[in-house]
Amino acid sequence: MKKILITITIFSLMITNAFSYSPTKLYDDVWVLVDAKYVDQNICTQDWTKWRHKYDNKIQNDADAKVAIETMLASLNDPYTRYLDIEEFKDENDSIKGSLKGIGVQIGIKDEKLTVIAPMEDTPAAKAGLQANDVILQIDGHSTKGITVKEAADKIRGPEGTYVKLLIKRGETEKNYEIVRQNIQLKSVSTTTPDNIKIPENMGYIRLSTFINKNAYKEVADALAAQSKKQGYILDLRSNPGGLLTNAIIISDMFLKGGKIVSTVDRDGYKETQRASDEIITNKPIVVIINGGSASASEILSGALKDNKRATLVGTKTFGKGVVQEINKLPDGSGINITTQKYLTPNGTDIHKKGIEPDIEVQLSEEDIKAKKDPQLMKATQTLNTLIQQMYGKTCKAY
Fold it and tell me: For residues 30 and 26, what is the distance between their CA atoms, to the nearest angstrom?
C-alpha cells in the first residue's frame, strides 16, 4: 500500500498552573481562537471585537462560561463551529479512536431544521429506520425549533440501555421513534451488500459508512486486498456523513494515479492542493453510490473520483458540506471545533450547500426499502458491468 505522510495538528493552549485557568480565561481563549482561525476573516461581517469583553465581570463559573461561549459562537450562524464540554470532547476523541456512545446518528442543521445527515450502519438509529434528511421535530417531547446541534446531541445522548424518543418528519409524514442508547463500536467498512442482495461474482462491493474512525483507510485497503481478484468495484458511500479529511485524501489516492484530490482555501485566500501520488492500488473500474446523506469527506472522495473521470457516480445528490473543521483542545479538557477552510473539488467546484450531482440519477423509495429492493445498487452493477466489458475487451492490464 502507498504511504502518505499526513500531519494532523490539534491546537492546545498550555498553562503552567491548571488552577489558574478561570472560566473567564476559557471564554477569552475561545474568542482568540475563533478570531485567529475562523474561515471568514470578517467573522460573517459582524463586529467580532464586541464579543471579547461582552461578559466582563459576568462569568462567575464554568456554567456561565459555557452559556457565554455558546451564545458567542451562535452569532456566526455556523453549526459546524461549536464548543465541546469535557465530556463531549472526550466522546469526539473516542469516535476517532473507533467507539461512540449514543444511538449512532449524525445530525446537522439544514434549512434551519435539525436534520439527520445519516444513521451509521448497524446502529440503533439505522435498525430503527432513521434515514438521511429526516427532520427531527422533537426529542423526548421537546421541540427542536431553534436548537443547536450541540444541544440536540446532549439530549440524544444518555446512559447505555436507556431510550430516547424522537418525533421524525419524512416528507409530509410524522412518526415517533423510541431508540435505545448503546455503546457503539465504529466499524467503517462492510463488504456485505444491503439485505444480502446478490451482485455478479466478478464485482467487489465495499460499503464505507464513516470516515471518522482513524483506521478507515486501512479497512478500505484490507477490503480491496480481500477482493483483489474482482474485475471492478462498487464503492457505497450512501448515508456516510464524513469524518477525517485525511481519510478522504488517502482513500482517494488509492484509486488515482496522479491528479488533484482536493483543494482547501483558508481565510486569507491561501489555496493548498492535495494531489495523488503516481502509485495506484487498482485501476479497475469503479462505480460510486451516493445519496443525500453522503457528506463532507464522502463528497471529497466522490468529487475527486468524478472530476478525475475515475468513477461513475450513481444515486442522488449529496448533502453539500464543503467546509473543514479543526479540532482545538482547551486546557481544561474541553474543546472547540472551528471551521477554518472551505474545500473545492479538483475542477474547482465549491459544493457547500449545493452537493454533488450523480452521473446517473436513481431514486430509492420507501416502497423499495420495504420490499428490500435496491434500484441504486442494481443500476450500479449494470453500469459497472458495462465498464468491465469495456476494460477487459481491450488489451489493457487490470491489477
Answer: 6
Helices and strands (H, E) in the chain, number of each type:
10, 20
Q: What is the CA radius of gyration of the chain?
A: 22
Q: Is 307 a catalytic residue?
A: yes
Helical pair 23-37 and 62-74, crossing angle rounded to 10 deg: 20
> pLDDT (tens digit, 9 = 90+) per residue, 125-178?
999 999 988 999 999 999 999 998 878 988 998 888 999 999 999 999 999 999
Identify the active-site residue in 37, 260, 284, 321.
321
**Residue 321 CB neighbours (<10 A):** 25
Instruction: Pick the catalytic residue from 307, 332, 334, 379.
Output: 307
pLDDT of residue 1: 45
pLDDT digits (tens, 9 = 90+) for 314-339: 999 999 999 999 999 999 999 999 99
Q: Residue ranges per domain, the chain?
A: 1-98+186-391, 101-185
3-state DSSP of 349-399: CCCCCCCCCCCEECCCCHHHHHCCCCHHHHHHHHHHHHHHHHHHCCCCCCC
Q: Is the CB of residue 317 less than 8 Å from the CB of residue 292?
A: yes
122 is catalytic: no
Catalytic residue among 239, 252, 294, 296: 296
Residue 304 has pLDDT above 50, yes or no: yes
Q: What pLDDT shows up at residue 290? A: 98
Reported as a pLDDT band with limits 50, 70 and 90, residue 105 is confident
User: Global pTM?
Assistant: 0.75
Q: Above pLDDT 70, what percent of the chain?
A: 92
> What is the CATH superfamily name and number for domain 101-185?
PDZ domain (2.30.42.10)
CATH number assigned to the domain covering 1-98+186-391: 3.90.226.10
DSSP SS3 for 163: strand
Active site residue 321: yes
